[in-house]
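Quick question about two entries, pasted in order.
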Amino acid sequence: MTTNDLVTDKAVDQNVAKLEANLARVEELTQRLLKVMGQGRQVAPSLQGPSQELYVKAATAYMSEMMNNPAKLIEHQLAFWGKSVKHYVEAQHLLAQ
């Protein structure tokens, strides 16, 4: 074994020890973070936005309107697609100029 091999072995041992110390520190900080995040304050559900009940009511109203008046739905869909095609043609026309 040469002198360079001994120096390299010492450097490797030091790096391994340093790595182990860093991993222990990371583990300690992870535990602290988890502890702090677990102690977060509780937010009132009324502040979280609309409840599922609102979405159910809206979907029910939409479906009942669709079943009672399908012509209105088709009319809105055709108007949407008609405007989409019109905007596309206008954009192509402007790009061509």
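Here is the second entry:
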Amino acid sequence: MWKQWMMAAMLVAGLSWVISAQDAQTIINNASKAIGADTLKTVEYSATGFDYALGESDSPTTPWPKWIVKSYTRQVDFDRSASKSDRVRMQGEKPMRGGNTQPMIGEVHANQTIIVDDKTPWVTQLEIVMLPQGFLRAAKANNATLSRESLGGKQYQVLTFMGQNKAPVKGYINDQNLVERVSTLIDNPFLGDMPFFATYTNYKDFGGTKFPTKIVVEQGGWPIWNLDVSDVKPNAAVDIQAPPPPANPAPPGPPLGSVATSVKLDEGIWRVYAPGYASLVVDFKDYIVVLEAPQQEFRAIAMLNEIHRLLPNKRIGYIVNTHNHFDHIMGARAFVDEGATLITHEAHKEYYEKVFPLPHTLNPDRLWKSKKPLKMETMKEKKVLTDGNQVIELYHDQGSRHDTGLIFAYLPKQKILLEADVFSPAAQPNAPTPAVISEFAVSLVNNIERLKLDVKTIVPVHYPADGRTVTLADLYKFIGRTAPGAAAN
């Protein structure tokens, strides 16, 4: 009897799957016919709007900073799984807020070419798969299943297939057989299994092909694209060629930043550098204090290895975080896994308490595997760390629109100041003062003067690759001024 029940259950399960697959195929066919996907081999579309910098907001509660997209043209070859886009961008935040190459001077051209092969990362392939026509092709090729969901009070037929990263890709088909939304999850070193979705509305007919004229793409809870499509050319003659190889390709070996080096600045103080990012390491009596954790986990691990080489068998007591931009907080996860207490501005407290425990199942990192809780201390305007010998003063960069909770560190005995993002020296020494003065750097100088700090050496987190010593005079030159006590050039 038990065997008969199991056989019957398996038959019913199999029949349910077949019916589901058949129903899914019907929905795919209906949607493909509605938007002309079956006959659409290529497309070229033009748009204007905005794009945004993921993880670079001026506070945890505001959208990613935006740029104006003056023009945008994209060609897609669905048969080849290839795409080419060209856009012209302009400064969008006035006044500036947040990070990522601000201020943007004039018009900046940017392009992207994708030609999918067996080595193309899934997150890159999604640039094509997430388009309505791309999704329907992928749903058909991957034997999508069908379900029904309510979203925002609206009923949808939902097609689902498993992406290459083992996260489901879902397409929401409305009652007009139009693909209105495509969603999935992708890995983000800070946010973990990060929602990634696109909404497509205001479909119009272009020569027998229906195409959305409003495209909004979101990652991490805020838009990264907001485009108004003005022209669509179905089955256009596209020319998508692989870009030429870089003139100076990266040498073989471990990725840049996976090995860290150190320079001793004073007794018990080192600058540790994993190319692109620098931290300060301060040896306290009973523990180590690290000022800033770099970018993603592999850089943080490289720095941890170097710190443990410098100070073996000594625990890291604190990791100081300057602000909430992803490239300045992602690496802190590895330090929290080491048992370090995170110090940050109180503006970030609720956000970090929410984000640090988020699932990292797509690409588990050390902290997700260990499940260690976040230990955190916050500050407002000033916090002092000392063991009676070493002294670190942490200050809020008042008035900065780079991040409302931006802090910098000052070591009064050594006259060293560590800052992040607001002053990143040029690759070449003696570079001229920029044509447009960064108000972020001006804010830092204003705070140094307000606090009457006697600064001699500056450690920018984005340290120049030549390893040269950076001084207060360099910061003043960067804003077109002469440092106090320095002779004018």
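Reply: The domain at 19-234 is CATH 2.50.20 (outer membrane lipoprotein receptor (LolB), chain A). The chain has two domains: 19-234, 261-478. Hope that helps.
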